[in-house]
Amino acid sequence: MASTYKPEQARVPPAVQLPVPPVTKFKIALCQLSATDDKERNIVHARRAIEEAAEKGAQLVLLPEIWNSPYSNDCLPVYAEDIDAGGDASPSTAMLSEAARSLQITIVGGSIPERSGDRLYNTCCVFGKDGKLKAKHRKIHLFDIDIPGKITFVESKTLTAGDNHTIVDTDVGRIGIGICLDIEFQELAMVYAARGAHLLCYPGAFNMTTGPLHWELLQRSRAADNQLYVATCSPARDAGAGYIAWGHSTLVGPFGEVLATTEHEETIIIAEIDYSQIELRRTNLPLQNQRRGDLYQLVDLQRLNS
Ligand SMILES: NC(=O)CCC(=O)C(=O)O
After folding, report:
1. 153 pocket-lining for ligand 1 (C-beta < 6 Å)
2. Residue 250: CB partners within 8 Å, gap ≥ 6?
3. 139 part of the active site
4. Contact 235/22 with Cβ under 8 angstroms?
5. Which residues form the CN hydrolase domain (predicted)?
6. Where are the domains of the chain?
7. Looking at the domain covering 23-283, what would its CATH class be?
8. Is 31 one of the annotated active-site residues of the chain?
9. Which residues contact 290 (CB under 8 A, 6 or more apart)?
10. Residue 163, phi-psi category: left (phi > 0), alpha (psi -120 to 50), beta (remainder)
């Protein structure tokens, strides 16, 4: 016998109705950039890549996790910037703001180490085409891993975890933000989907151990589970670095299909997003209506407590 449960009985009802995005089709750029120990060079380099992406028609540009610094516990405090103070205190975000305004694009600015008081965060800033900071996401799940003989990294040695999830309305739709390890937690992606996200953006530097196994799998899972777009952007691989990034920045569509990807070298991926595909897939396979909230429930505590 069919269940008598109705989706509207869910404690946090899913956003069955997607918000109408300002654009249906547009180009996204994933700038898979190298990060050196020269911060000034990294900023100039990222600025050039953003400009090239805009010249190729991208309306949304995504940068990698920790693009202005090497990804190491020694470097994070040295390269950290006071984003809230802005101006000279944060040359990396000043560049992103200027680039977004002058090129008239939306930028999901990867992440940089942020200093706030005596704390450090791994932080992603989103700029609108007016150059204004629209959202700031501090990585919620810090990357602590110990696989003997393979990889040991303890991000929590230097960084503090953020306490908020971040969803932002932009000129290119509603975007949920996560940083790298945040992609491992399906609840976060589900909360974003329930809040009507069209696209999830994850700047992320996976590694040579988990990268081959998990990177694409997680992106496709988050996209297929939630029937929305997922975009990731990694730093390019530097085989001589202390932390070797997997690369393979990727765009996945709402049916879990890889729409564009790359290997590990520096590159700019330009790909088209078509939000009408979300409605199509949700009509083809109406998971939203098939959920069994009488058996399990998603609780968005941030929304409940706000
Ligand atoms: N920078 C990160 O959070 C890396 C996460 C990662 O590699 C993973 O396996 O998860």
Report:
1. no
2. 30, 215, 216, 219, 230, 231, 232, 258, 260, 261, 262
3. yes
4. no
5. 26-275
6. 23-283
7. alpha beta
8. no
9. none
10. alpha
The whole-angstrom separation of Cα 197 and Cα 181 is: 19
d(CA 228, CA 220): 10
Amino acid identity at 88: D
Tell me the C-alpha distance between 243 and 85, whole Å. Answer: 29
Strands 25-32 and 267-274, by their bridges, are antiparallel
Q: What is the pTM of this model?
A: 0.95
* Cα–Cα distance measured from residue 297 to residue 122, given in angstroms and rounded to the nearest whole number: 30
Over residues 242-270, the pLDDT tens digits come to 999 999 999 999 999 999 999 999 999 99
Tokens of 281: 């897939």
Q: Are 111 and 42 in contact (CB under 8 A)?
A: no
Residue 30 has pLDDT above 90, yes or no: yes
pLDDT tens sequence across 195-221: 999 999 999 999 999 999 999 999 999
Cβ contact 222:242 at 8 Å: no
Tokens of 220: 């496709």
Pocket test for ligand 1, best of 206, 232, 233 (most atoms within 8 A of CB): 206
State the CB neighbour count (10 A cutoff) for residue 2. 4
Question: What is the value of ipTM here, to two decimals?
Answer: 0.98
Residues in the chain: 306
159 lines ligand 1 (CB under 6 A): no
State both tokens at 74.
Answer: 């020694």
Give the span between the Cα atoms of 102 and 99, in whole angstroms: 5
Query: Two tokens at 229?
Result: 């777009």
- Give the closest residue (by CA) to ligand 1 atom 4: 206
Among positive and negative, which fits the CA dihedral 79, 84, 89, 93?
A: positive
Kind and range of the H or E run holding 177 = strand 173-177
Compute the distance between CA of residue 63 and CA of residue 241 in angstroms, rounded to an integer: 19
